[in-house]
């Protein structure tokens, strides 16, 4: 979107360049625990890498392209806000990479459609596991569309990749890093990789998966598990069974991206043991020192006042579908944007109100600025040069913030500061002499703010009313409100007409026609009655403007006293 502008800003800052380092981080040689800085294309961004626990330059294997793998859902129940928070946050990061920095993100996601929880749910519902998995997979995808999450380039199901998983495990065994038991299980051999295990967790005593006495080491984890009675199974060299939890991601990510991956993402709770085990088995398969160069982990979402994350297993969750009955996808994105993606985030009515208020401030500024551009809002002379300077500063601040580990709170703060300066210039007056107007600078500000929010996935053209598809055969709600406001303006102008000096009882100060005062009161009553319904009409001298407030329906709105005739 702004690739040329961003390149220009980075050149000025002397950070946008392509650097080739001696160490390449590719899958060749002996695996090591220390992170190796990859060679390739330096994006100019710095991102927090969970492998090093600090910010690192984001260097991609291929110029202008990022390979990105993410852990998808285990589809046995409704998706909840904890899932939504993680997927929306990473969607924002991918949008920033592609739309601001011109990087094509090739994103693959796995759908875990066979798992102990899915099997248990199928028994409870007396249906096959595949029915449960498809039901909740379809619901998850609909939820992602509702939240405006861009789908990955490809979704891949575990059940459709079992032969590839079996072959992947066979190669790990052949490479000397896994072993089969007499019972038909296959475990990864932690001791075979020496001290290279523990990149996220450090020293580990036990995996805590099944406590099998056949393990060589308590830390060893399952690659293939033998089937139990009445469980789904696939044939393998070790007998009937199904994949372990971790092996699916290594196999599928390698099938799409090969032996080297730029970025791997997931919730912070997946760092150990899931991502730790992914790294071990992937590097054992590829016989390499560094399989994935960067791990991004999103912080947990908590219900305010609770130390526990929102989780299906803890039964403390709010489904995405239920949430969207009260709030919009735009408001949830703003909620996510107001905190860093790595940070834990508290969900509450007050935190959602803050997000709604921030979005409302921007929307109101849009209506005010557009009214000024149309000549409906009369203002004193605008400090145009000052606003152009603030706009240029904001552009630089947003790029700098997002290049620094996707600092969305700082970027939003820069936008809100620009809105503040714009609002300071839009001070309404009842009358204005013929003064120079400056609509172009406000047009530039609106275009820029809309572009940034669109990059983040916040679409100001589709508010909550439109998202609910409130339309009629004769046109949209907005068109109806516009016609109503125009009619009210004409009635109000008629009611505000002053008496002729000759017929007025007070010629020095002609008043209103007494018989028209009820019309004026009716106009004021209509304005007040529409406000709680989310339609806000603002009278500006002889004209009026309107806007539809998100989330205001049914709320009590404080309003000023109705106009009184003088």
Keywords:
five-stranded parallel sheet, elongated, alpha/beta, four-stranded antiparallel sheet, disordered C terminus, 566 residues, 41% helix, single chain
Set out the fold topology.
Blueprint: H1 3-13, E1 41-49, E2 54-60, E3 65-74, H2 81-100, E4 104-112, H3 116-125, H4 129-146, E5 154-157, H5 162-174, E6 178-180, E7 186-188, E8 222-226, E9 241-243, H6 247-257, E10 261-267, H7 271-286, E11 292-298, E12 301-303, H8 320-323, H9 329-337, E13 345-347, H10 349-374, H11 384-403, H12 408-425, H13 439-456, H14 464-467, E14 471-472, E15 475-476, H15 477-495, H16 517-530, E16 535-540, E17 543-548
Parallel strand pairs: 3-4, 3-10, 4-5, 10-11, 12-13
Antiparallel strand pairs: 1-2, 6-7, 7-8, 8-9, 14-15, 16-17
Overview of this protein structure:
- The chain is α/β, with parallel strands linked by helices and 566 residues long.
- It has 16 helices and 17 strands.
- The strands form 6 sheets. It has a 5-stranded parallel β-sheet with strand order 5-4-3-10-11, sandwiched between helices.
- Helix content is 41%, strand content 16%.
- Residues 11-24, 464-475 and 552-566 have low confidence and may be disordered.
């Amino acid at each position: 979107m702004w690739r040329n502008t961003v390149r220009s800003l980075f050149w000025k800052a002397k950070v946008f360049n392509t650097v080739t380092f001696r160490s390449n981080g590719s899958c060749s040689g002996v695996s090591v625990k220390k992170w190796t800085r990859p060679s390739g294309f330096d994006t100019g961004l710095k991102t927090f890498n969970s492998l090093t626990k600090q910010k690192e330059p984001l260097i991609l294997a291929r110029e202008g392209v990022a390979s990105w793998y993410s852990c998808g859902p285990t589809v046995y129940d409704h998706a909840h806000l904890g899932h939504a928070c993680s997927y929306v946050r990473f969607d924002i990061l991918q949008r920033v990479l592609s739309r601001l920095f011109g990087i094509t993100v090739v994103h693959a996601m796995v759908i875990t459609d066979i798992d102990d929880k899915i099997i248990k749910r199928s028994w409870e519902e007396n249906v096959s596991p595949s029915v449960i998995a498809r039901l909740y997979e379809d619901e998850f995808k609909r939820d992602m569309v509702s939240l405006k999450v861009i789908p990955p380039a490809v979704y891949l199901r575990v059940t459709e990749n079992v032969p590839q998983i079996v072959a992947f495990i066979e190669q790990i065994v052949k490479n000397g890093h896994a072993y089969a038991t007499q019972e038909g299980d296959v475990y990864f051999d932690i001791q075979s990789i020496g001290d290279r295990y523990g990149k996220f967790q450090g020293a580990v005593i036990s995996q805590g998966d099944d406590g099998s006495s056949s393990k060589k080491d308590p830390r060893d984890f399952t690659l293939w598990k033998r089937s139990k009675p009445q469980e789904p199974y696939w044939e393998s060299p070790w007998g009937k069974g199904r994949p372990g939890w971790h092996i699916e991601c290594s196999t599928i990510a390698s099938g799409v991206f090969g032996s080297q991956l730029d970025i791997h993402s997931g919730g912070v709770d997946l760092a150990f043991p899931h991502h730790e085990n992914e790294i071990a088995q992937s590097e054992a398969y590829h016989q390499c020192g560094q399989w994935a160069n960067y791990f991004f982990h999103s912080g947990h979402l908590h219900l305010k006042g609770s130390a526990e994350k929102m989780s299906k297993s803890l039964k403390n969750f709010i489904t995405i579908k239920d949430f969207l009955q009260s709030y919009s996808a735009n408001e949830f994105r703003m909620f996510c944007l107001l905190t860093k993606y790595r940070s834990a985030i508290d969900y509450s009515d007050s935190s959602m109100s803050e997000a709604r208020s921030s979005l409302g401030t921007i929307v109101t500024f849009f209506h005010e600025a557009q009214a000024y551009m149309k000549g409906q809002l009369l203002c004193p002379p605008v400090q145009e040069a000052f606003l152009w300077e603030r706009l240029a500063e904001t552009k630089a601040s947003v790029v700098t913030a997002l290049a620094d580990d996707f600092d969305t709170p700082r970027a939003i703060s820069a936008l809100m500061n620009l809105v503040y300066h714009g609002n300071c210039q839009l001070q309404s007056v009842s009358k204005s002499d013929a003064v120079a107007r400056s609509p172009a600078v406000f047009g530039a500000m609106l275009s820029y703010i809309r572009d940034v929010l669109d990059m983040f996935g916040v679409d100001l053209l589709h508010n909550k009313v439109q998202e609910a598809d409130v339309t009629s055969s004769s046109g949209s709600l907005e068109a109806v409100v516009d016609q109503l406001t125009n009619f009210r303006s004409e009635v109000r102008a008629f009611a505000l007409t002053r008496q002729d000096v000759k017929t007025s009882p007070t010629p020095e100060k002609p008043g209103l026609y007494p018989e028209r005062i009820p019309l004026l009161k009716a106009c004021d009553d209509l304005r007040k009655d529409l406000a709680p319904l989310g339609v806000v009409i603002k009278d500006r001298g002889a004209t009026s403007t309107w806007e539809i407030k998100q989330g205001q329906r049914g709320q009590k709105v404080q309003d000023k006293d109705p106009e009184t005739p003088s």
